[in-house]
Write a structure and sequence with these properties.
- With about 170 residues, the protein is of the alpha+beta class.
- A hairpin with a 5-residue loop joins strand 7 and strand 8.
- The chain has a single domain, classed as Cyclic phosphodiesterase (Cyclic Phosphodiesterase, Chain: A, Alpha-Beta Complex), CATH 3.90.1140.
């Protein structure tokens, strides 16, 4: 059984922007590039993988490229000391998230509400969180781009994540 996850990666220039903060504040900086989690980590057997890949291909054929709009820095405090770039919700992101929590994918959710975001700080001590969250919230954030692929990732033994397969979003915008 391997751990898998399904994400969107923003453009390299925006990843560089996020990494400027992540380098200092994100305990998982070295494990995975900045990303938007569509489906949290889940474990499946090698036998289950081909069916999920086929379903991911079908989903990608139906879903058009996704316009994202990063508009502010926010935090999950008091639930956690995670700080993130918040994305404006949109139908395509919500639709993708819903599809990835239906059979044949595992349907358990760690979080009941889908909040599209790109993490920039996590696993902070509360004092450190309190010191930097105000500064980060003052950053003027306005970034828009279109993402045209989703990635199925798997976790390596050293806890880092790598791309297993990429799926081009081919649906037509309505």
């Amino acid at each position: 059984m391997l751990n898998y996850g399904i994400v969107l990666f923003p453009s390299k220039p925006f990843q560089d922007t996020a990494n400027g903060l992540r380098r200092r504040y994100d305990a998982h900086y070295a494990n995975i590039p900045p990303h938007i989690t569509l489906k949290e980590s889940f474990s499946i057997s090698n036998e289950e993988l081909p069916e999920m890949i086929q379903v991911l291909r079908d989903i990608a054929r139906q879903c058009p490229p996704i316009d994202i709009h990063v508009y502010k820095v926010d935090t999950f405090f008091p639930q956690s000391t995670t700080i993130f770039y918040k994305l404006k919700e949109n139908k395509q992101l919500s639709w993708l998230n819903e599809k990835l929590y239906q059979e044949p994918f595992p349907t358990d959710r760690a979080h009941s509400v889908f909040i599209p975001h790109i993490t920039i700080a996590q696993k902070l001590q509360q004092a450190e969180h309190d010191d930097i969250v105000g500064q980060l919230k003052m950053i003027d954030v306005s970034h828009q781009e279109t993402i045209d692929r989703i990635q199925l990732l798997y976790q390596l033994d050293n806890e880092s994540w790598t791309v297993y397969e990429t799926f081009l979003l081919q649906g037509q915008s309505t």
